[in-house]
Amino acid sequence: MTIQGFLTFLLIGALAGWLSGLIAKGRGFGLAGNIIVGVIGALVFAWLLRYIKK
Fold this sequence. Notes:
Blueprint: H1 3-24, H2 30-53
């Protein structure tokens, strides 16, 4: 994975975590926690995608 791809996954994950925090309204881990969970989710998805593509 290139640096650009890695940064893209981080950005998309952060955005997804932030949006999920807005949608959940009062649930979740706070702004920073939701962003971290989104980034972790994006990284797990990228890892799984490598095995699905084979």
